[in-house]
Write a structure and sequence with these properties.
Elements lengths: L15 H17 L14 E6 L5 H12 L3 E6 L11 H9 L5 E6 L4 H6 L5 E7 L5 H15 L6 E5 L6 H12 L3 E5 L15 E3 L2 H5 L4 E4 L15 H8 L14 E3 L12 H4 L6 H22 L8
Helix pairs in contact: 1-5, 1-10, 2-10, 5-6, 5-10
Length: about 325
């Protein structure tokens, strides 16, 4: 289980064997989370800085827990109380933080490409926690891990990515990861929320939900990003729910052992009905737990690839 790269910027750049290394390592760390004492020592002595320029609950807490579970020292940065408010540039902010002798940076930013930009002048390992509408690689990995652990494979499965593909960095990371590992991927949503370049990524594109769901093993439902729906992309949320909401009735089109996923937060009653979100086939909360294990694997393998002082437990 080795990965010979310093940064995790996106799944598009990863080889299939690298993705599997992250998943296999996450399986080991997932077992750690079930122990009475949920802490190991691989990153003891290393310092990780969390730079979040966008609001986040699950991703931020998941990274912070992953870092603590690995015994790393952690520092969390918020723009509301930083010199960014005084006009300091991102480059100066990062260089000043790095001058305090840190080892890894986890960054979420509203602009695509910022994690890559940091690699041009930072000596730290950079982990992309979501950049604009580009990618969210650790969410993609935890979604892959959740599917892989249930079905013991990814190749040959039919996975439907449902919803706001136009704004979703999660969809892009899922597409790259799933297709590289042999899954059949379909993307479905309103025409106004389907980017024209989506078909070039090697997936089916549907505006008919019933056709998209036929024979699916997994439905990963994306959040309708309400904060972006002021530009007339949807006639109304009620119409979206009628045409594209995942309901009990629509589940009849899926394969018998189907799985319902959602990266959160859920707009209940809009993209996903309550009785679907809370059903026995839903693994939404399991995704959250798996997220800690996957992020532990990412931090561990990147640190090990750089020859950091990684300790064996």
């Amino acid at each position: 289980m080795t990965v010979k790269r310093k940064h995790l910027l996106g799944l598009e750049e990863l080889e299939p064997h690298e993705i599997m290394s992250f998943l296999e390592s996450a399986k080991v760390f997932r077992e750690v989370l079930d122990r009475p004492i949920k802490k190991v020592a691989p990153l003891r002595g290393l310092t990780v800085v969390n730079l979040f320029f966008e609001p986040s609950t699950r991703t931020r807490l998941s990274f912070e827990l992953a870092e603590k579970r690995l015994s790393a020292d952690t520092v969390s940065f918020t723009t509301a109380t930083s010199s960014v408010k005084k006009g300091e540039t991102l480059k100066d902010t990062v260089r000043n933080i790095e001058a305090m002798k840190i080892d890894m940076i986890v960054i979420r930013h509203q602009s695509a490409g910022v994690p890559y930009f940091l690699t041009r002048f930072s000596d730290a390992c950079i982990v992309n926690a979501g950049d604009g509408q580009h990618e969210h690689p650790t969410q993609g990995l935890l979604d892959l891990y959740t599917i892989w652990t249930k079905y013991k494979k990814l190749a040959g499965l039919r996975v439907v990515l449902m919803g706001d593909a136009k704004h979703s960095r999660v969809i892009r990371s899922n597409i790259w990861g799933l297709t590289k590992l042999g899954a059949s991927v379909a993307v479905c949503g309103p025409p106004t929320l389907l980017p024209v370049e989506m078909e070039k990524m090697g997936v089916e594109v549907h505006t008919d939900i019933d056709k998209a769901l036929d024979g699916a093993d997994v439905v990963n439902v994306m959040r309708i990003q309400l904060e972006r729906q002021t530009s007339g992309l949807l006639p109304s949320l009620r119409e979206y729910t009628t045409l594209f909401g995942i309901t009990r009735e629509r589940l009849k089109r899926l394969n018998k052992n189907y799985t319902i996923m959602h990266p959160g937060p859920i707009n209940r009653g809009i993209e996903l009905a309550d009785d679907v979100a809370d059903s026995v086939n839903s693994v939404i909360l399991e995704q959250v737990t798996n997220g800690v294990a996957v992020r532990m694997a990412v931090l561990y393998l990147l640190a090990a690839s750089e020859g950091k002082n990684v300790k064996q437990d």
